[in-house]
Amino acid sequence: NAGIIQGTIDGVKVCYCIEPKTWSLLQNLFGDFMGSYVDLKGCC
Predict the structure, then answer these.
(1) Statement: the pTM of the whole predicted model exceeds 0.70
(2) What secondary structure, in 3-state letters, does the chain show?
């Protein structure tokens, strides 16, 4: 349980959405990660 999705299950009905606090944290973490990429010219 990563805590990314929040919701409820009531019989056959399911209601879910993104957990805003966790999503914000992931955006910050992956944003920094993606921003640290260095393009190596002529690599391929």
Answers:
(1) no
(2) CCCCEEEEEECCEEEEEECHHHHHHHHHHHHHHHHCCCCCCCCC
